Amino acid sequence: MTAPVERKVQASTATAAVSGMVLWVLGKYVFKGDVPDVFASWIYVLVPAGLTFVAGYFTKHTPREKP
C-alpha cells in the first residue's frame, strides 16, 4: 500500500506547473517571443523556485494516522 501524496508536495508541484505556463504566456504575448536573455534567465529560474517555495511553506502538512 502506498501513502497519499502530501498536500505540501501537491501545492508545490501545481505552483511550479502554473508558473511555467504563466512565464510561457508572458514570453509569447507580452514580449512577442523576443524575451531579453538576461530577463529570461533570471525569470525562468527565480520565479518558479520562489513560488514553489512559498506554496510549500504555507501549505499545511497532511495529517497522518498513528500506527
Order of helices and strands: HH
Give the termini separation.
14 Å
Poorly predicted ranges (pLDDT <50, ≥5 residues)? none
Derived from helix and strand composition plus strand pairing, the structural class reads mainly alpha
Largest sheet: none
The total beta strand count reads: 0
- Overall mean pLDDT score? 80
- Rounded radius of gyration (Å): 16 Å
Share of helical residues: 55-70%
Count of helical stretches: 2
Shape: elongated
Strand content: under 5%
Task: Give your account of this protein's structure.
The protein has 67 residues and is an all-alpha fold. It has a domain at 32-59. It is 69% helix and 0% strand. It has two helices and no strands. The chain has helices at residues 7-30, 37-58. α1 runs antiparallel to α2. The longest helix is centred in the first third of the chain and has 24 residues, at 7-30. The chain is elongated and about 55 Å long. The protein starts with 6 loop residues before the first helix and ends in a 9-residue tail after the last helix. The model has no long low-confidence stretch (mean pLDDT 80).
